Amino acid sequence: MENPITTPNGSREYEVLEEVRAETVEINQGGAALVQAETVAISQGGAQVVEAKDVSISQGGVVSVGSETTNLDGSAAVVIRANTVQLKSAAAGVAIADTVIAESSTIGILFTGTIEGQPDVKIDARTAAMIGTGAAVTLFILKRIFSRS
């Protein structure tokens, strides 16, 4: 989280907090490297890593989220690991969850048991498995061809 500091000449500088640990963390127009809490709410800000029971992000972004429930509204996350993920006009690079509820959202790679809504999923678990299998077979064949030379 950024805390404004007034310097002797009257200008304002910002201190970036590396780690924030508390029961409840609210970040408004700021950021932190690591956030660990029961409940995290980020509004117009961001964090690198968030580990919490409940996470809510509005108009912000995170690199990695690990939680029971994650709610993104107009936000983005690179990796989400949660029991339940709710996305509203949001984006996620990789989402790993039991349940995904999505409205007007995009997910790059999705591993989930239940999907509610119609997210724009680029690669689902089945497609990822097919790509992995195809790559493994291709590498096996190329190794056999070039090892005979």
Tag the structure with descriptive keywords.
149 residues; single chain; two-stranded antiparallel sheet; 1 helix
Q: What does this molecule look like?
A:
The structure is a single chain. The protein is an alpha/beta fold. It is 15% helix and 67% strand. It has one helix and eleven strands; from the N terminus they run βββββββββββα. Strands 3, 4, 5, 6, 7, 8, 9, 10 and 11 form a nine-stranded parallel β-sheet that branches. A hairpin with a 5-residue loop joins β1 and β2 (12-16). The longest helix is centred in the C-terminal third of the chain and has 23 residues, at 125-147. The mean pLDDT is 89.
* Annotation field: number of helices: 1
Strand content: over 45%
- Helix percent reads 10-25%
Q: What would you report as the Rg, rounded to the nearest angstrom?
A: 20 Å
Oligomer: single chain
Furnish the topology, listing elements before pairings.
Elements: E1 2-6, E2 12-16, E3 19-21, E4 24-28, E5 31-43, E6 46-58, E7 61-73, E8 76-88, E9 91-103, E10 106-117, E11 120-124, H1 125-147
Parallel strand pairs: 3-5, 4-5, 5-6, 6-7, 7-8, 8-9, 9-10, 10-11
Antiparallel strand pairs: 1-2
Could you write a compact summary of the structure shown?
This protein is an alpha/beta fold and 149 residues long. It contains 1 helix and 11 strands.
